[in-house]
């Protein structure tokens, strides 16, 4: 499937149209951003690692009956996906306190959260993705009540499936962000699942193995992503 026009260039991925109006190509770039895109660096191999990581995770989720937009891995940096009508609200599941939750509530990093928290953020770079809640989503018409319920249900199911997958490989799935869209009226998981959009700690020493290595200048960012990929069984080469 050939890439045609560039439709959208995000912070880490570029979206292209194809000859089929229902299909898109996502290109994973090496760009790595933090602080709402104010800091951007190129990390060699990142596009390839995240593309293959994402395909691996989405395939696992599909086998567990989570609908995803993935059709086929096209190349090291490209994947063919269904074109979704994206919902402008990000879903975050938190199993442990970290990141913005720690800053907002002054909690100790690593505090176990049972049951896991479900947060919603509006996708809006200019407003720094503000936190919102269900009634905002309904009142402002970002998503219907029924679709939001489905997003929540799917997010918790993803947490069960991936929490186990990472636990079996020796990692704690601390938190993660999901984005959904609509395809023929159905809520479908879109965007990506990679160490850019989740927190993973090594169970042995609580080492950060995700984008916090970049955010906090801990070094060896892609080496950590590759280590996670290797331990969960993603084939990179
Ligand atoms: O920043 P915060 O602690 O709320 O992030 C929670 C989780 O969601 C983290 O795993 C982070 O990487 C992810 N996230 C993301 N994209 C955003 C905001 C958060 O991938 N725009």
Q: Could you please describe the fold and organization of this structure?
A:
The chain has 237 residues and is of the alpha+beta class. It has 2 domains: 6-82, Phosphorylase Kinase, domain 1, CATH 3.30.200.20; 87-221, ATP-grasp fold, B domain (D-amino Acid Aminotransferase, Chain A, domain 1, 2-Layer Sandwich), CATH 3.30.470.20. The chain is 30% helix and 34% strand. The protein has 6 helices and 13 strands. The protein has helices at 46-63, 99-105, 134-139, 145-168, 212-215, 221-232, and strands at residues 6-9, 13-17, 23-28, 31-34, 39-42, 70-73, 78-82, 85-96, 112-122, 131-132, 171-183, 186-190, 198-202. The strands form 3 sheets. Strands 8, 9, 10, 11, 12 and 13 form a 6-stranded antiparallel beta sheet that branches. A 5-stranded antiparallel beta sheet has the order 1-2-3-7-6. A hairpin with a 4-residue loop joins strand 6 and strand 7 (78-82). Helix 1 (46-63) runs parallel beside helix 6. The longest helix is centred in the middle third of the chain and has 24 residues, at 145-168. The model has no long low-confidence stretch (mean pLDDT 97). It binds cytidine-5'-monophosphate. Cytidine-5'-monophosphate binds at residues 90, 92, 98-101, 129, 175-177, 197-199, 211.
């Amino acid at each position: 499937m050939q890439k045609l026009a560039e439709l959208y260039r995000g912070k880490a991925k570029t979206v292209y149209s194809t000859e089929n109006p229902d299909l898109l190509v996502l290109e994973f770039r090496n760009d790595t951003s933090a602080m709402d895109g104010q800091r951007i660096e190129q990390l060699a191999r990142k596009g390839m690692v995240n593309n293959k990581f994402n395909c691996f995770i989405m395939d696992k989720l599909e086998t567990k009956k989570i609908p995803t937009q993935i059709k086929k891995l096209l190349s090291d940096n490209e994947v063919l996906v269904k074109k979704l009508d994206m919902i402008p609200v990000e879903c975050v599941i938190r199993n442990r306190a970290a990141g913005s939750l720690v800053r907002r509530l002054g909690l100790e990093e690593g505090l176990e959260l049972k049951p896991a928290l479900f947060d919603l953020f509006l996708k809006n770079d200019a407003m720094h993705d503000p936190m919102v809640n269900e009634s905002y989503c309904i009142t402002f018409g970002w998503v219907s009540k029924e679709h939001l319920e489905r997003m929540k249900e799917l997010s918790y199911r993803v947490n069960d499936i991936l929490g186990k997958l990472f636990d079996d490989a020796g990692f704690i799935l601390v938190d993660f962000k999901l984005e959904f869209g609509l395809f023929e009226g159905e809520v479908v998981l879109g965007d990506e699942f990679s160490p850019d959009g989740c927190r993973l700690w090594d169970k042995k020493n609580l080492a950060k193995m995700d984008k916090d290595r970049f955010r906090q200048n801990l070094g060896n960012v892609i080496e950590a992503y590759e280590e996670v990929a290797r331990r969960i069984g993603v084939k990179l080469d």
